[in-house]
Design goal:
Blueprint lengths: L4 H9 L18 H11 L5 H7 L6 H6 L2 H17 L16
Helix pairs in contact: 2-5, 3-5
Length: 101
């Protein structure tokens, strides 16, 4: 369904709120904190089992299993942030992982 002139003008004024809710449109991420915020926002709803599977070869796996869902989620986002900050894929299981203590 094509947009009429008024709808197109509204979109051009506020593209980030046009399709049913606020979206960050065209924002360039320039800092680790912005990466972290992006991961927190976009990974909401990731299941605990999926996060633990990501860490399945981690030497800290037993400790990670003890974390609350919220703490595990933030650690998961932190690890993805680190990977993006270092401009590489998430740490491979063979590489040492930072201590949780």
């Amino acid at each position: 369904m094509p947009l009429n002139d008024a709808e197109l003008a509204a979109y051009e004024r506020s593209p980030d709120t046009f399709f049913g809710g606020p979206l960050k449109v065209g924002k360039t991420i320039t800092s680790p904190f912005e990466w972290f915020e992006w991961f927190v926002e976009t990974m909401k709803g990731v299941e605990r089992d999926k996060m633990l599977k990501f860490f399945e070869k981690s030497p800290n796996l037993e400790r990670l299993k003890q974390l609350s869902d919220e703490d595990l989620f933030y650690y998961y986002c932190e690890r993805h942030t680190l990977a993006m900050t270092l401009k590489k894929v998430p740490r491979s299981p063979a590489e040492p992982e930072p201590s949780l203590t």
